[in-house]
Amino acid sequence: MGDPMRGLYALPPGVHFAREFVRGLLDRMVGQPPEALARVTILVNASQTMGEIRRAFDRAGPLLLPKLRTITSVDPGPLAMPNLPEAPLARRLQLARLIDRMVRLRPDLGAGHAIPVLAQSLSLLMTEMQTEGRDITDLESIDTGDHARHWQNALAFLRIAAEFHLDEPWRDRPARQRAAAEQALAQWSQGLNLPQGPVIVAGSTGSHGATRLYMQAVAALPQGAVVLPGFDFDQPQSVWDNLGDAADDHPQSRFAPLIRDAGYPARWTDAQPASPARNRLLSLALRPAPVTDQWIAEGPQLPDLVPATADLTLIEADQPGQEAEAIALVMRDAAERDECVTLIAADSGLIRRVTAALDRWHILPDDSAGRPLPLTAPGLFLRQVAALFGEALTVDRLLILLKHPLTATGSQVIGRNDILRHTRDLELKLRKFGPAFPDAPTLTDWATKGDDSRKIWAEWLAGMLDRITPLARDRASRPLPDRLRDMIALAEALAAGPGGDVQASRLWQDKAGTMSRAVLDHLLEHAHHGPDVGPNDLCALLITELQAKAVREDVAAWHSLRIHGPREARLYANGTVILSGLNEGGWPQPLSPDPWLSRQMRLAAGLPVPERQIGLAAHDFQQGIAAERVILTRARRDAEAETIPSRWLNRMMNLMGGLPDRNGPQGLAAMRDRGNRWLAMAEAVARPTETVPPARRPSPVPPGPPFRELPVTDISLLIRDPYAVYAKRVLNLRPLPPLRPEPDASLRGQTLHAIVEALLKTRPAPDTPPEVLKAQFLAITRDTLQTDVPWPTARAFWAARIEGIAERIVADELARLAEGTPTVIENRGRVSVPGMDFTLTAKPDRIDLLHDGQVVVYDYKSGTPPTDAQIRHFDKQLMLEAAMARRGGFDALGPVDVGAIRYIQLGGEGRTFDREHDHAIEGGTWDGFVELIAAYLTGRAGFTAMRAPEKTSYAGDYDHLARYGEWALTDTAEPRKVGDHG
Predict the structure, then answer these.
(1) Across residues 532-557, what is the average pLDDT?
(2) Of 8, 249, 280, 907, most Cβ neighbours within 10 A?
């Protein structure tokens, strides 16, 4: 070879690793025959690195290529062990079975965790123990002090799991890798079984124990070399000497053991980074915390920071949406100029935002990660089907499933458009009339009122609901294979549709469908290893397995726009690199808690501490920021609160801000200025092309009589918020009921009304014993709640409250029955207003005819009854019902004299409230009502929005239509004619 390869080499951050690695290798092969390169074995850290190295060889022209493999597949010489079973899923399921038994015996050890999640974390722990060469004795040696008893309980279980998992190491790839590395190190150090050609490990940081051990073995070979990526040559030797376990969060910490074993690395090539001055700045900014005093000593020695950061741009957006818009603009600009730009993002949500923003210009970037399988159509469909198990089917979940694009795609008798039409019709029916938990009988009457297509579809859906109902009620643990088969069968039946076939559906088609089916088949193959699972564990297991997969769709992506994860930052140093989401909790992401071992326990057992992940992420950042042109982005706020800049960005900004002699503050300001230009463009793109002035407070005056009839319940609304009556009665608009009914105050009031109405319809006698009437009242309460309130918790709570006031309600009811007879119970009445074409209607809760011929008008209230002042000015319902009774508005009574108006409280203490009433007050209320109606019928008054709301926090059904918020309650409303006034 032109230059012998032996020992440790490195490339600095900011150079294209694959290209420089290939250039350095070819330089060393100068003067060698062509076949010499074919004898070289290159072991890389990942398949992405392998792909980049292959492309770099392609650019070098015709060559005999070396052998390229990933280091995780290493099986040197006699350690090659083909045909060994690799079933990590089976391992996890076996561990899940152990955990299930543990939790049954000691629920406190697994409290708050799903069994599949615990099995996943335990499997990762066992894998770490294998790769780091640890066994159960290392765990047994941990000193836990005051927590010894609890630790002994957990250790007893870990001992069983470790014996099961670690006693057969050849079954697991991590164990084979560790054994291969140990045997290679032992044999090669004695000159035995040496590789026949040069061996090079390229691009690995040695973050895992087995990999690091193998790299040490290769570096010691006569023809072995290790080429490290992103090595900080600017870091002083004194820092390297003290870079120990306490600095696991430092970007260079993974290299320290290799340097201690193989010495300081040489440069693989003479390539310089895009900005050596910037690399020096970052090297100093990211020094370990114990030596940040070096900022004071070395900071003044840095070069001028304005030119050093000339190719750095800092975008600090107000919120994540604006950050995504700015990133999309950068990528669009690069696409227009046909330049390469790479977005490095750890936040999948931000990636989706950026992709959506680019779609505005029909630009699709090349996302190396693809779409996570759980977010594809088949993945979402399977998750929704799994969620049907063990949970009562609600309206919203049913409709989400029916509207899914894979549902009923195999139907041969009904087209997709008809299916969606029937679904929309069913949605309106369920929104208006319920029930909250639909079942097959729900569809019977509805289906008979449609065409043949609806009947076929409803019959199929009723059959599916009959199939879902027992699965929803079954919350017990069942064998995992049975659960999986039930889920797959239900998913296929839903995808097949009426008279359809799953093979004709789109469920298992295209890449996502094929991959989803493969995941389920793999689960079924090993399901017998797992424990019995309940519905929640089934969902957790399905999501865990789906999340491990991603789908790259066959679409034509823009060739120069790439999206990659942080781990791939080392591969791309040319063009523009965008490091996004630079907030704490975003990049770096928060550390996942270990339910088995604390940080101190890991240290004592010789296992990696959680901060190692921070160090690896820091190394990715250090390599990314060393690219040719770099844009750093973050959002100052997220959906919940203000954010904190990423620790690495914070360090760099703090260091620059403290070096005025090196023009650090000026350089930082220039970075922000460049970012602000992109933010200004993003704001301009989001800004409407035309300025829309704020709406004025509406007060429409429709042509002609706006209505000829109103219910008495609308009169209070007409006084307080006339615009709501206009929208409801003139425009004939009604708010759409919520998709998921809830046991709210409205339903509670309706239920209480129904209970009392049912009691009165039994015609109880005044001399009924109180205990008998109370028993009857409570029996009606139970029956009504069982029918109308399908939520067990709300039903129990309401029943208890009603039972608490039942005695008083019964006593007051017997007193009322002694005074008179309930004559009008929820019966409609109407009175025409003389001199105008208008009728007032009412449906009073109750009117009793007293023994003296007078009547008492009652209204049931589940809340607080209105006061006399509120009745005089706003709440005129009872007073107008009394006026209607005096004018013969109720057929069962004829014209009668009104003796009183009262409110019966069905909540609180169950009291009865008398309110002020006499002929003069009643007459004045009627005259005021007639004058009010006349003003609207003749167009003298406009329907002003929120004319006199009871509270400023009032929220009406039509506030969005009135565009409330663009105007304030203090704004003057000017009546304006709308429509055709002739």
Answers:
(1) 87
(2) 8
